[in-house]
Design brief:
Shape: globular
CATH architecture of the largest domain: Alpha-Beta Barrel
Largest sheet: 7 strands, parallel
Strand order of the largest sheet: 11-12-13-14-15-16-17
Helix content: 40-55%
Strand content: 5-15%
Low-confidence stretches: none
CATH topology of the largest domain: TIM Barrel
Radius of gyration: 25 Å
Length: 569
């Protein structure tokens, strides 16, 4: 059972209840459960098997019964009945950013809009302007939102792709005839969005692999089935391709199908200059097979160092590999802690102690509890009085722990003019201060840049969190003058965050590399709101690796003593 499928169903239930004017507390319960299940690093089916669903934050008796019903029957009766009560296309309309349930209901009741195509036709016919308080700017935002929804259908996030691939790989690994298995394509390169999934297998019984692959539970449609290659579409409309190759050609196939296209073209050109031919079957000299079992031996034949999959974009990595001057990329094991997590004190779902113990299990030596500041009331921002109580709790937890430290932190809001939420006498008491924009996303490039620049110049701000504010499928990154921001961040010893939360991945890989080149150090953090979300750090590490970052470019590879010293401004 897929976490994504359950979370999607719960979101649909919440959306339909909103359209029908349902109980807001019930709606919020389904939304929260959907978010928490999507953020799990374990399969929710394991929680069902162990009868531990109640351990997932936000799962009470009612939602527990719904999940168990789905585990047993593959359906939720209440969901099926709700779906029949509204036109199916309305759910897609509700997924458009800036279109809320009240608007969806009005559009349906007054203009009979049942789907995104209906909405697009109504906009083209100028039927929206001037009604329901809808203005020209609102319509412009709706059109942008429609484009975001369409993009979301074409591609999935890295986390979604990884989860789908893991399920197929785990199922295929159970076949004794599968000797080796790996993802390929953009997922292996760890791109932040993925169109479809490629899987490569070594097996001496390809028919058995193909039969198993095309008959797995999640298969909706078999697009093609052959002796060594098959393609299918899952119930969530994800295309998955599986190929069985010989052992001697596995490295060549992995190299070829991992890509990127430009990277492969350049490798072929290098091979030609060496009087060699390279393809998915191996490296050949005058039609004689000379190499292909591993990628490492192929790179060696081409006279270059091994290039990590995340770098294979033809952005200078081939030339450096030929000179043996590639950077040593950061690895997850290099991280000593997470500098952006939330607790029950604001909008988190775990206690400080629970977050600390989850961090210890990962192998960290510290964690910064950075709950929201007072002005962000929607996220339970902390008043000055509450801060004192939180600090006392952190001190109490620290007394219980050995070789681990909970850092007293905050995520302060940057207001519309660039001012920081707390006053200096409060800010100087924190170990870690991260600052972020949470409102006013539609300001101009100049205004947004000015806000971040001013935050960098604050002597108590250490890190700028999720700098571009993007949310995959919901909100595009806002426009910033990064050259100015990098310059000021460097001059003020302010660090920029690589936010690992799957919907954010912000900064992206390109800006990571630009930051590195301008001498700005970064922090890789998760923005976790539950203890179960901490392992999402792996997605931030993937972004950092694609951005050419090494251990030295990231501040939370430092020990806690080194970190606190490095943060001083």
């Amino acid at each position: 059972m897929k976490n994504l499928e359950i979370s999607r169903i719960f979101r649909d239930i919440a959306n339909i209840l909103q359209i029908k004017g349902g109980n807001p507390f019930r709606i919020r319960a389904y939304q929260r459960a959907a978010q928490n299940i999507e953020g799990l690093t374990e399969d929710v089916e394991e929680f069902v098997r162990l009868d531990k669903l109640r351990e997932i934050p936000g799962i009470g008796k009612d939602l527990e019964d719904r999940i168990k019903e789905f585990a047993k029957t593959g359906k939720i009766k209440m969901y099926e009945e709700l779906k029949r009560s509204v036109p199916e296309g309305l759910l897609e309309v509700l997924n458009i950013p800036s279109v809320g349930p009240k608007t969806v209901k009005l559009l349906y009741e007054n203009l009979k809009i049942k789907s995104i195509p209906d909405l697009e036709k109504a906009i083209k016919a100028n039927k929206l302007e001037g009604i329901f308080g809808i203005k020209e700017k609102t319509i412009e935002n709706i059109l942008k939102g429609i484009e975001l929804v369409k993009k979301g259908k074409e591609r999935m996030s890295l986390a979604q792709a990884a989860q789908v691939a893991d399920e197929f790989i785990e199922a295929l690994k159970k076949i004794p005839e599968v000797k080796r298995i790996s993802t390929a394509g953009s997922l292996r390169r760890q791109k932040e969005t993925v169109r479809d999934i490629d899987i490569l297998v070594i097996s001496n019984k390809p028919k058995k692999v193909m039969d198993t692959f095309t008959n797995l539970n999640d298969v909706k449609e078999v697009l093609a089935k052959g002796d060594t290659k098959s393609s299918l579409r899952t119930k969530d409309d994800v295309q998955v391709d599986c190929r069985v190759v010989e052992n001697k050609s596995f490295g060549a196939a992995l190299l070829y199908f991992t890509g990127s296209k430009n990277f492969n073209i350049k490798l072929r050109q290098i091979a030609i200059r060496k009087a060699l031919k390279i393809n998915e079957y191996g490296v050949f000299k005058n039609e004689r097979f000379i190499s292909g079992a591993t990628e490492e031996e192929i790179f060696k034949k081409l006279g270059m160092a091994y290039i990590q999959p995340e770098l294979r974009e033809d952005n200078g990595e081939i030339e450096l590999a030929q000179k043996n001057k590639l950077p040593k990329l950061i690895e997850q094991k290099d991280l000593k802690g997470d500098l952006h997590v939330h607790s029950l004190w604001s909008d988190g779902r775990s206690t400080i102690e629970e977050m600390a113990h989850a961090a210890i299990k990962i192998g960290y030596s510290y964690i910064a509890i950075t709950d929201h500041s007072q002005s962000l009331k929607i996220a339970g921002g902390l008043s000055i009085r509450e801060l004192k109580k939180k600090k006392a709790e952190i001190d109490k937890v620290n007394k219980k722990l050995r070789n681990f430290r909970v850092l007293y932190g905050t995520e302060v809001d940057i207001d519309s003019k660039g001012n920081i939420d707390y006053k200096d006498e409060v800010l100087k008491g924190f170990d870690v201060v991260i600052a972020a924009i949470h409102t006013g996303f539609k300001q101009s490039r100049q205004q947004l840049t000015k806000r971040l620049v001013k935050a960098c110049q604050d002597k108590y701000v250490h890190i700028i969190a999720h700098p571009t504010g993007r949310l995959w499928g919901l909100r595009d990154a806002y426009d910033l003058d990064f050259e100015e921001i990098f310059k000021v961040a460097h001059d003020t010893n302010t660090h920029l965050e690589v936010n690992s939360f799957p919907q954010r991945l912000d900064l992206n890989d390109l800006n990571c590399r630009r930051a590195k080149e301008t001498g700005v150090r970064l922090a890789i953090s998760t923005d976790s709101h539950t203890a179960e979300q901490l392992p999402a750090i792996k997605f931030g590490v993937s972004v950092a690796r694609r951005g050419w970052l090494s251990r030295l470019d990231v501040i939370n590879t430092l020990s806690v003593e080194e970190l606190l010293k490095a943060l001083r401004k």
